[in-house]
Inverse folding.
């Protein structure tokens, strides 16, 4: 086999191209997660009433949050498909496909009739479209982070990897802001009648912007060399689970602790708990959504800081600091929310997002450095998707059931604290490989020593 004329070297990517990649991955993931989070927000605010009301109030709420979680069950399938194709045909193509799938499903949800208008067809169609969102989300993240990290110089992978990680907090910021705006423009019954639909329909415009931006970036230099060498793995997923299953499990557990905590707001739980007129607080929708929006700003800032910090002190150390912050704020966050004071609610959410950001900012680089080049897309995407099932998939449903059973949010705090401790232990078992060469010429070294047990 002929050797390539040049190795996979990110320094060949000029500064202008890196900026384009950073912009494309940030905009694309923001749009993807805006679409994903407005569903979760609507599930906490109106979907129980509009699509599941015949089941009774409490069961309808559980079904509404359950529909958020159902999409997570299909994220591994999206990760399997996107991982296989991303390792076979490239990172860039999958970014465009996942964006179209997510945006199309979101726009159709905005046009969907309610149970009163279409009967049982309405919730069934809602679930199908949510499943399509799950398939897209499962494939999106792996491609976006690899485009960012594999274009970056070794000493700045954490910083560049933080760009696509800004997508979720920016998506939450946009989704909560859009919902808060519509709650003010169309308050009360008008919000349930039509106001919630507007943020979903906006997605058709956002998807066009995302496609234009993403289509203008170059393919990852690592995949370009893999293709040039003709060394694409024929069955990347089979190889991944044969040789790297323990790494997938540990990486998934690290994300589970982050994702479950994040889904207290991104999954719509806090929004419903604080605004439910039959609940203990009964606060107005608009100010609660604004408090969530403000917490998304803190989350984004901490995510950005953590990416750069991980380049200086290492990925694992940054993670462990984040787990400590998350653990010590989980109970105070709920105590502050339970005061019913909007300022305290905003403070509690902001404090809680600090640890969430510190364990999210380094994730792109941390995961990319765990897996060999030829199966890296499959490795990061599947680890992420499994972690999402173990963490955020049913976190709002579990939290709702725990409060219904024990009549205190302390039960939810115990649940989240337990997941945080498990995630910290998994992080400790993974080896910090900050700066390891990512090109296919170093695949032998990449295949060894990713855990402290190997």
């Amino acid at each position: 086999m002929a050797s390539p004329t040049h190795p996979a070297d990110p320094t060949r990517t000029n500064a202008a191209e890196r900026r384009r990649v950073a912009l494309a991955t940030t905009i694309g993931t923001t749009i993807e997660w805006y679409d994903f989070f407005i569903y979760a927000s609507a599930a906490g605010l109106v979907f129980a009433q509009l699509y599941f009301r015949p089941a009774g109030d409490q069961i309808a709420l559980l079904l509404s949050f359950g529909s958020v979680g159902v999409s997570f069950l299909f994220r591994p399938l999206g990760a399997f498909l996107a991982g296989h194709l991303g390792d076979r045909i490239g990172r860039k193509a999958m970014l465009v496909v996942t964006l179209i799938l997510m945006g199309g499903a979101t726009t159709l949800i905005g046009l969907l009739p309610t149970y009163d208008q279409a009967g049982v067809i309405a919730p069934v169609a809602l679930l199908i479209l949510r499943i399509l969102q799950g398939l897209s989300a499962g494939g999106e993240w792996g491609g976006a982070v690899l485009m960012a990290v594999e274009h970056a110089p070794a000493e700045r992978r954490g910083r560049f990897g933080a760009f696509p990680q800004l997508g979720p907090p920016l998506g939450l910021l946009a989704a909560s802001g859009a919902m808060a705006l519509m709650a003010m423009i169309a308050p009360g019954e008008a919000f349930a009648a039509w106001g919630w639909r507007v943020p979903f329909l906006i997605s058709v415009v956002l998807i066009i912007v995302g496609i234009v931006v993403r289509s203008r970036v170059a393919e990852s230099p690592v995949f370009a060399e893999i293709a040039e060498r003709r060394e694409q793995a024929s069955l990347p997923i089979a190889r991944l689970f044969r040789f790297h299953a323990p790494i997938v499990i540990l990486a998934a557990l690290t994300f589970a602790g982050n994702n479950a905590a994040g889904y207290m707001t991104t999954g719509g739980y806090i929004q419903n708990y604080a605004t439910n007129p039959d609940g203990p607080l009964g606060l107005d929708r608009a100010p609660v959504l604004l408090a969530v929006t403000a917490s998304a700003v803190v989350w984004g800032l901490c995510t950005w800081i953590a990416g750069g910090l991980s380049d200086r002190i290492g990925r694992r150390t940054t993670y462990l600091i984040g787990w400590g912050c998350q653990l010590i704020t989980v109970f105070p966050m709920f105590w502050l929310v339970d005061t019913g004071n909007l300022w305290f609610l905003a403070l509690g959410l902001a404090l809680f997002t600090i640890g969430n950001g510190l364990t999210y900012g380094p994730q792109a680089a941390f995961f990319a450095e765990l897996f060999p080049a030829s199966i890296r897309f499959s490795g990061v995407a599947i680890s992420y998707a499994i972690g999402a099932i173990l963490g955020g998939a049913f976190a709002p449903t579990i939290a709702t059931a725990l409060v219904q059973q024990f009549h205190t949010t302390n039960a939810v705090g115990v649940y989240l604290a337990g997941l945080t401790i498990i995630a910290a232990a998994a992080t400790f078992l993974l080896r910090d490989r900050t700066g390891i060469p990512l090109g296919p010429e170093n695949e032998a070294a990449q295949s060894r020593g990713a855990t402290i047990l190997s």
Observations:
- DSSP finds 23 helices and no strands in the chain.
- The chain has one domain: 12-446.
